[in-house]
Amino acid sequence: STSMRADRHPRRAPIRAALLVGLAVLLAACTQPAPPPPTQSPTASPTPRMFTLATTGAVTTADPAVARSYTDSLVVNSIYQRLMMVLPETGELKPDAATDCLFTSKLVYECTLPDQLFFHNGHVLDSSDVKFSIQRALRIDTPDTSIGLLSALKRIDTPDAHTVRFELSWPDNQFGYALAGQAASIVDEEAFDPDSALPLETLPIGSGPYEVQTITPGEVTVKKFEKYVGPKAGLLDALKVEIVADSVAAETAIADGTADAVWRSLDNAALQRVTDEIDGSADSVTAKGFRRFPMPGMRVTQLVWNQDSKLRDNTKLRAGVERALQPDRTLDSIVPVGVADHAKSFLLGGRPKLPSLDGNRIHMTLGYLPTAPGHADLASLIRDRIESLGGVSVRLVTGGSADLWLTDSPAWVNNATGWLQRYLEHPLAGSRAKLELLETRARTTSGTARTAALTELQQQAAADATVLPVSQGNGVLFLARGVDLVGEAFGSGQMLGLWGFTRA
How far apart are CA 210 and CA 216, in angstroms? Predict the structure, then answer.
């Protein structure tokens, strides 16, 4: 908590005021009448409010090895660098902290660092920090992070301060993309514990475009890092990420103009009200000047079976859930439309014949995040669809563990392999050998052979039905008058970053 200066203490204010009044009376009695006061100069214009991005979902960590939530990833993306980055629109692989990364042989991937690369605390970032960061992430091994994309890594050598040499177990065409994943973020080895997560109250040290000034579960303030070297230099001098309680608070921020950008956070009804206000306006903005920023196809919703659920092994139940979702499903693969090598594999619409589930009544839980826009309504719809199978009761939960989980978290890397990761990391026992073979083929070949392997993986995902596509739609971001988002403003997994924001 910030300390308050003694002369600003609210309880002392009346005492101080009384003393000043008494002193003024005393002085007036002892002195000649004062000359008329000089004409006052006009008051200075008020300091503009720090740029504020409002969103729901508390900050839980700023450690890239363990961060998984939307809000945590927003912060992590903006304060750390990775060796490589994936351009969100084209899927192209480009250097980030590195000046260059390339295969020097089939099993060696080598990255070169620039001469002048610094962390926020002034420490030099060199090859030793990169090695430490990736080995640390592998050791902490947080499930459902991008760390699984580094499966080909055998060892890391650092022949000099500017060279990082990755030796692979097999020739992996995805290794450069793995180095763009969030878990491969570079941390200062002098500031991070090699075996445990950074506590939230400790300021995180990265080398990214912004450095953290304050961090709590409800607010993060950052300032532009002047010594940043890389393709994502921040445009604003300072920003604040403010966590609002719920959709009502987010809608109020738009109505009152108390934020510069509002991200995610709005439920279906609030989204409709704001959209109607914009559509009914002559200049396509709200009363306070907010407009919706176009994010076409950037919100992908999936229903994922928990690998620890005892019900996941019930083949008939999995098939029943998949079939029950078909009338409402609008996305036909776990690799979204627009991503290279997307292959249609799930049926859409129609009136599918639902299997009958014999035996005892099945009780299952369906989890969702209440901070995800529209997911409360969607979870209720999905529950009704699953219960139409007969013999199944579904209870909705918003925390803890659940048999099924509704998610709109993007892939850690926006390409076919990145989107398949959620499915491939938790294979069914009967599919494991086939999936390993297909994944190896996809990651060691190119051209038509690679496309064929990726297509077959998507078809097998439909057969296994452990990760089910639900929909693909537009992301939710509203910008105030004069605010814009420019350049490549999203990270490798289409996660929002702070560096692209501008304010007129």
Answer: 17
| Helix, strand, coil percent values for the chain (each to nearest 5) | 30, 20, 50
Judge residue 351's burial from the number of C-beta atoms within 10 Å of its C-beta, 0-12 exposed, 13-18 middle, 19 or more buried: exposed
Give the residues across from 51 on adjacent strands.
Answer: 239
Nearest Cα residue to 364 out of 310, 324, 303: 310
Backbone angles phi, psi at 256, to 5 degrees: -95, -10
* pLDDT given at position 38: 55
Sheet holding 392-397, edge to edge: 392-397, 362-367, 404-407, 299-305, 467-473
Euclidean distance between CA atoms 116 and 124, whole angstroms: 8
pLDDT value, residue 7: 34
Asked whether the beta carbons of 365 and 404 are under 8 A apart, the reply is: yes
DSSP state of 114: -
Angle at 410 between CA 67 and CA 494, to 5 degrees: 95
Pick out the chain residues at pLDDT < 70: 1-46
Sign of CA dihedral 465, 406, 70, 284: positive
pLDDT of residue 242: 98
- What's the confidence (pLDDT) of residue 373? 87
**Cα gap 155→43, rounded to integer Å:** 63
Looking at the DSSP assignment, which residues form a beta bridge with residue 256? none
Question: Among 76, 186, 65, 80, which Cα is nearest to 132's?
Answer: 186
Partners of residue 250 on adjacent β-strands = none
Q: What is the pLDDT of residues 292-328, one digit of tens each?
A: 999 999 999 999 999 999 999 999 999 999 999 999 9
Half-sphere exposure of 85 toward its Cβ, with a 13 Å CA cutoff? 25
- Cα(379)–Cα(396) distance, rounded to whole angstroms? 7
